[in-house]
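#lab-general

N.A. 3:47 PM
ok so I finally got the sequence cleaned up, no stray characters, all 232 residues accounted for. can someone with queue access submit it? mine expired

B.Y. 3:52 PM
send it over

N.A. 3:53 PM
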Amino acid sequence: MTLFIKLLLAHLIGDFVLQPNSWVLHKESHKIKSKYLYLHIVLHLVVTMVLLWDLSYWPIALIIITSHYIIDLAKLYTTKYFSYKNIPFFIDQLLHVLVLYACAYYGDLWEHTLSLSERIAWPLVAGVVFVSFPAAIIMGKLLERMSDQIELDHESLPNAGKYIGIIERLFVLLFIILGKWEAIGLLITAKSVFRFNDLKEKNNRKLTEYILIGTLLSFGIAIVTGLIYVYL
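B.Y. 4:20 PM
back already:
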């Protein structure tokens, strides 16, 4: 575990802390000809070896920087094929972490992966998944007739309400699992404070009632899910 943590820390430092945005833009423009691509790889090698502080790990470091170069290069040339430019970024980071994991546990990779899978709390995973997008879809269906009577706010961010609901339900589920019911009250209070000014300015009773019903329904779904996980 210590080896993997060190490799992951080296990756985070090299990819985020010590890589200026100007390097990223230069790599996107010049791709394989960018000098910063190679400087970035060398920097990764230096940081990795410093954190490992053991020359016997040089084969692992060599594998990491070689794969890092190939993955980064692939991302630079394939990003144009994606409608959402953030998708290649997350794929890139996932591949990097998988390489680090494979290097850290190369001796018993299969056995270690199996042991990790056996320790996964699948009821918790199911609860987390449920309170995210499935719950958002269920709420959309339940509130569909009400939402048709509400004038849309074109100044709002697209799908902002859906993502706010998902995040708040995840927090509520976490608080219930930890037994921190008072934190749920603070979360409701904080949301009410942020919503108060908007509702006051619009003076729209239907919108106020719609938001109140949606909030109570969202918290209710998360609370019931949390109780089912804790007690059953």
